[in-house]
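[job 4471] stage=fold_predict status=RUNNING
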Amino acid sequence: MAGFASDRGSSLTTSVLHEGPVSNRLSTAGQQRLACFNQAYDRIRQRPWLRLALRVESFWLALAGPLVVNEESELRDAERYFEILDQAERRERLLTPSLLDQLIAREYAGSGGGDVGGLQVMTVHKSKGLQFNQVFLPGLDRTGRTNSAPLLAWEEHSSQASTGELLLAPVRSPYRGNHPIYTYINSLEKERDRQEQLRLLYVALTRARHQVHLFAQLQIDDEGNIKTPSANSPLARLWPVLEKQFVASVSNGTDVSDNQSQLPVDQGTQWRSIAPGVGRPVLPGSLFLSDQRPVNDVAGEIEYDWAGDEARVIGLLVHRHLCRLSRLGARQWNDYLRQHGERYADQLHQYGLPETSIEFAARSVATTLQRCVEDSRGRWLLVGGDSNQSEYALTRWQQGVMRRFVIDRTFIDQQGVRWIVDYKTGYRAGGDVEGFLDQEQQRYQDQLQGYAELFRALEARPVKLGLYFPRMGGWREWTPA
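[job 4471] inference complete, writing structure tokens
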């Protein structure tokens, strides 16, 4: 980090990387690793315009850092480190390694995520989000306080025909016993308690990095058989898995833990090495399903350049960055594109695009975004007006089903008109461009009409609809019916 933060690199880094006497004392494998380190280090240092956090993360990825982590939580720790570094760089005028150490120590102070020497006692609720090397769960055979039978029992219920129905059971009679409705409502409450107990058990068992120790005390009948734990106890939820081990332990006269293989409590520092030159693994091909949407009869007459999974992923990434650009001032757009341009390939990897398509797709994303900020229509859409929203999610009860809609861009202009705009990353590679745009308007007219009806249910103002094609600067607008 010190090497990236300075203009010329630290003297220690420069010495290790480039002085012959140092590298000559290394083994052959060590020299190969140093050469890979050198290559990645020099390549990242040639991009001084990138933020420090991005350069450090890129360097870590180039050295195949994710391949040497042992657990998923360590990947999350790495992501959080890069976030802290980025936030510190934005706040601090002079970011030093010692200051960064202080920020990291403050972030993880008392989190329970590190190797704390003492024992921490807490409820399962308080342990959510934390991680420990060893977790001890005592008293799993015990039952909580049972709910006393209430005088009244009721259940709220929602259906397609009503949003607030109330099922009320008759008052219990000391002479006739419980009414069937009362019994039914009580069974629902018991099932909720059982599901909550399962959820808490899941939280408790997944707090451990290495080992979970379960403690329970069970009763044995006169014949020497283990009695089934109480149905209200946490152990009852685990009993289908643990019963055989408990029965075997009683038969052998041993403790249950004697039958289980134990991980060592303290394994010390573990070192993992990778072969020299190993980089990011090659991802398998796309797993996207084929497009099943019906298309217009005339669509078969034109060969569209964006058909297929590749275009779908390009569209997802373009929408993601257009949303972010709309939240920035116009003066920040070029800086944003310059800083994030190097990450398009990695982001396309995350979407599952095959390696053979990455280079072309990254260029397409960069071209589309750059043309958008250079186009007067694109700039107008990104700036917007009042009530700006991007990737605006709305839900509506429609034809007996709750439907969710995501609107690419919407705002109110100076004339008080509500604009609803859908971005389209497809383009016409020559030929009848106007005819292509007309067909696209016809294709998506019903979809945008539905968006207009959503806003008409929310507000009383004129509405305009638009389709914008940032890669080709194409535009269609119309007034909904």
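[job 4471] summary: The mean pLDDT is 77.
[job 4471] exit 0
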